[in-house]
Design goal:
alpha+beta, Collagenase (Catalytic Domain), binds zinc ion
């Protein structure tokens, strides 16, 4: 047991020598970076002295209300009043921040959060196991309700920890001497105790930083974004917090996160967004691999933000955390076609969008979707947080949100960022995941009273052939008198609609798209009584949990929509049947179709990525060997659309190979299924139109053109991906 439990007493009580030589590169990098980050130090000391002065007037730590109020507003108020002169040496240093032990076989990173500017009244730790010159993450611990006792000489924090493993000594006792404000910070001693109060392992942890987390932050900009967002004075427009100048880095500093800016700012050529000058998610990923100097497909405290101009989905997409495959949450992008400008409201939107997208990189979910987290939390649609949508704010819409928004994360989000178990927070740790843990459709019980004036409908063909992409139509109808605000974007990837799927075996899953998009407010509208939205076709065949319809049988589907006012509206249950394969050909095609790479290719509508090459081989075999099979048309659309794209591939030596659009192949493959010329003409007929208008025209034409003779499943797939397909077809040469 001792060797496998860092909380238990270790046989040979190694003294914790203060030798950092055994640290890995990663740890050394952070340590070095912190030493180099000297510019912040003077301000930090000022802040600390300031906080200490304020604390001298504050009630003792045992009174949580006193501490909870000790935020920037209190400090400002204190600053405005003349302060009595207090001899600084009498002030005691605060103990909040990050601590680290050394030695073998385990090391601990300890976070103490009981007396800082915005304390969450928690302590947490990550444990690492040390072998030779390697450090391996072992597990994490958090105490949610510690007892804090303060004497003139020391602070003692005790409580029962929640651990990621079955800890033998789960009670903790942290002792930190209180030292004068001008003395170096004291070390924290972490003692573990069994449930019967027998002592377990002890770690002496030296003070590292006032920040609970430190990460490397790299930003690049597209050549058509001349100026990246820098900072915004929150007093420029009405707001709910003290006026202050916030950058991305200082907004995260307020959350207790130190961002060390790293790497040169690359200017990313627009050409990397492909022939249409707009970014697909695959192109964003390729750009991250190429331009993010710290990128590795491993969990690490490092994140990349691209300041780009336009996403394939148009100007309504303000930003995206696009890295939602493999090791996730390492990159995000914001789009200046929607947020650009120099006016105060645009700068505010830029700050908000940058901090919001990076929040997703910390695995934070939208405020109104917290119930989709694992484990679930209550939704907080009224939260005045970076993670809410101002335009969806149920407390009075956008204007009300901004004038009350303090430019902060909410309290629960702070706990997550600072004290979440390592893999729940660190970039490249656990996947960005919501839901999929619903127990049954009954948990989506109908509201007792529904006065929302909105009806949600879910439509689907009654049956699908085995392996055919399952898509559903989603539509809202206003059933109340007078202008109900409803949303135009109704696909799961836009976040307003979730779809639960009860499979033939009774298992219930929530459809979880590979990618979430953060849409702007521009696509909500006031619907009159009886007015309907257009039916949005949603692809729910493949997502983060793989294939959702990989067993023949009957499936029950139900959709849930979160309205701008926070109302939750459920659709009636829709039943579909997935037919078993009938012929040997059906079976052979299904065998070629069911694979994660093929599913990802269907989701993305093709990709050149090396990791997906065997999926591409399988799709090609479908249309080569079974040209008449309905699924061959799906394979043709996927690969034809991708052939029409320009694609960048990053080689092993980090050089970039550009694969030019292969218009011949594209026209041949897509032309076998769709009227390529018609779509292209619709797009090019818009003389002098910009790329956005051309994309819109192509997508609209595609939607109108696909339905008549195509099999329903193929038509549904094309409709669900009409933007992605349309913009590529628009650039296919007549040939
Ligand atoms: Zn978002």
């Amino acid at each position: 047991m001792p060797d496998s439990d860092p909380t238990a007493v270790i046989d040979e009580q190694h003294e914790h020598d203060l030798d950092l030589a055994e640290a890995t590169d990663e740890v050394e990098t952070f340590a070095a970076a912190e030493q180099n980050g000297g510019t912040a130090t003077a301000t930090q000391i000022d802040d600390e002295a300031y906080a200490a002065i304020a604390a001298a007037f504050a009630p003792p730590v045992e009174e949580p209300t006193g501490i909870g109020d000790l935020d920037a507003a209190t400090l400002d108020a204190l600053g405005a009043a003349p302060l009595p002169v207090i001899p600084l040496p009498l002030l005691k240093r605060k103990v909040y921040g990050r601590y680290r032990s050394t030695g073998t076989p385990f090391q601990v990173e300890l976070r103490v959060d009981v007396d800082g500017p915005t304390p969450t009244m928690r302590v947490s730790a990550d444990y690492y196991s040390i072998a030779g010159s390697t450090i391996t993450y072992f597990g994490s611990m958090r105490v949610d309700a510690p007892a804090v006792s303060v004497s003139p000489a020391q602070i003692v924090i005790t409580g029962l920890g929640r651990f990621t493993w079955a800890a033998g000594a789960p009670r903790i006792r942290i002792t930190i001497p209180r030292v004068p404000i001008l003395s170096p910070p004291a070390a924290a001693t972490l003692l573990h105790l069994t449930l019967t109060n027998q002592p377990g392992a002890t770690y002496v942890c030296r003070y590292v930083s006032p920040a609970f987390r430190t990460l490397l932050f790299e930003q690049d900009r597209q050549d058509t974004v001349p100026v990246m967002f820098g900072s915004y004075n929150t007093g420029s427009l009405p707001s709910g917090g003290p006026a202050r100048t916030l950058s991305i880095v200082s907004a995260y500093a307020e959350a207790g996160v130190q961002m060390i800016t790293t790497g040169a700012t690359d200017v990313v050529p627009t050409g990397e967004a492909g022939a249409n000058s707009a970014w697909s998610d695959a192109e964003l990923h390729a750009a991250m691999v190429k331009h993010f100097s710290r990128w590795k497909d491993i969990p690490q405290w490092a994140v990349w933000l691209l300041h780009a101009r336009l996403h394939d989905l148009g100007t309504g997409l303000l930003g995206i955390m696009f890295d939602q495959q493999g090791k996730q949450r390492q990159g995000a992008a914001v789009f200046y076609a929607g947020i650009g400008g120099a006016t105060a409201d645009k700068l505010r939107l830029q700050l908000y969008t940058c901090v919001h997208e990076l929040g997703h990189c910390f695995n934070l979910l939208h405020s109104w979707q917290k119930s989709l987290a694992i484990p679930p939390q209550p939704n907080r649609p009224l939260s005045l947080s970076w993670m809410n949508y101002p335009w969806n704010y149920p407390g009075g819409g956008q204007a009300a949100f901004w004038s009350a928004f303090p430019f902060r994360f909410d309290a629960q989000e702070l706990v997550h960022i600072r004290h979440g178990f390592l893999n729940d927070v660190i970039m490249g740790g656990n996947p960005f995941r919501v839901g999929s843990q619903l127990e049954d459709l009954a948990s989506w019980s109908d509201p007792i009273e529904d006065r929302s004036g909105i009806q949600l409908d879910l439509e689907a063909p009654r049956s699908f052939g085995y392996g055919e992409p399952v898509t559903v139509g989603i539509r809202l109808t206003s059933s109340g008198p007078g202008g109900v605000q409803i949303t135009r974007h109704l696909r799961p990837r836009n976040g307003q609609v979730q779809i639960a799927i009860a499979g033939p075996g009774g298992r219930v899953q929530l459809y979880e798209p590979l990618l979430h998009h953060c849409m702007s407010e521009t696509r909500t509208f006031a619907a009159e009584d009886g007015q309907q939205t257009e039916t949005e076709t949603a692809f729910i065949h493949y997502g983060q949990d793989g294939f959702y319809f990989d067993q023949p049988g009957t499936y029950r589907l139900r959709a849930r929509y979160t309205a701008p006012d926070g109302s939750t509206i459920l659709s009636p249950v829709t039943t579909i049947r997935v037919r078993p394969p009938v012929t040997a050909e059906d079976e052979a095609v299904a065998e070629l179709m069911f694979g994660d790479e093929q599913g990802t290719l269907m989701y993305l509508v093709g990709s050149d990525l090396e990791e997906l090459s065997s999926g591409n081989d399988a799709l090609a075999r479908i249309w080569e060997e079974f040209p008449e099979h309905p699924l061959a048309d799906v394979a043709r659309i996927v690969q034809g659309t991708n052939a029409a794209r320009e694609f960048k591939l990053v080689e092993a030596d980090n050089t970039v190979r550009v694969r030019k659009p292969d218009t011949g192949t594209a026209a041949e493959l897509i032309g076998a299924v769709l009227d390529v010329d018609g779509v292209r003409k619709a797009a090019t007929a818009k003389k002098k139109a910009d790329e956005i208008e051309k994309m819109d025209a192509a997508a609209a034409h595609l939607e109108a053109a696909v339905t008549p003779e195509l099999p329903a499943a193929v038509a549904g797939y094309v409709n669900s991906r009409r933007r992605e397909i349309g913009i590529e077809i628009a650039s296919v040469d007549g040939g």
